[in-house]
Design a protein that fits this description.
single chain, about 190 residues, alpha/beta, Maf protein, 7-stranded mixed sheet, 7 strands, about 30% helix
């Protein structure tokens, strides 16, 4: 099997990929992640997933390179990572009792052949009605300021939900392992 590279600096994606018990290297791709004006969120995450994988192709010419990107879509807009308590509080307050869609792009590049497989996994999260006290308590405990949507579903954030709907629950954390597993099997013909 060709060596595997994860084009990401995300500790969440690294932890997920470790679940597959495969040896891999990890390197942050240096790309501009700005959306193109008018670009639909589905196209954005696919484009950025490919760009992340392609950014490492020259440095890793005989590897399988994984790129992934995620956005949260709420009421027609993209939610950014909050960065701080106040922004996270406002995000969670606006999501309370509502459905938010998380779009996770995944790309697997064979840098030797140039073949690339790209897909998108959608996850819908339905939030419970949250009081301001619940939101404040949660944020103080989990501090999800580097997470789109202002929660960590793999941690205490799961308690904020009424429901979660996806064909691949790991996509919500940032790397859809079910889909990645299929891509790896397809590219390796196993």
């Amino acid at each position: 099997m060709p060596k595997l590279v994860l084009a990401s600096s995300s500790p969440y994606r690294q932890a997920l990929l470790n679940r597959l018990q495969l040896s891999f290297e990890c390197l942050s791709p240096d790309i501009d992640e700005s959306p193109i004006p008018g670009e639909p969120p589905e196209q954005l995450v696919k484009r950025l997933s490919v760009a992340k994988a392609m950014a490492l192709a020259t440095s890793y010419p005989h590897h399988l390179i994984i790129g992934s990107d995620q956005v949260a879509v709420h009421e027609g807009g993209i939610l950014a990572k909050p960065g701080n308590y106040d922004a996270a509080f406002q995000q969670l307050r606006s999501q309370s009792g509502k459905r938010v869609t998380f779009l996770t792009g995944i790309a697997l590049l064979n840098s030797k052949t140039g073949d690339i497989d790209v897909d998108l996994v959608s996850t819908d999260v339905v939030f419970r009605q949250l009081s301001d006290e619940e939101i404040a308590d949660y944020l103080k405990k989990d501090m999800p300021y580097d997470c789109a949507g202002s929660f960590k579903s793999e941690s205490l954030g799961i308690t904020l939900f009424k429901g979660l709907y996806s064909s691949d629950p790991t996509a919500l954390v940032g790397l859809p392992l079910i889909r990645l597993g299929k891509m790896l099997r397809d590219i390796l013909n196993v």
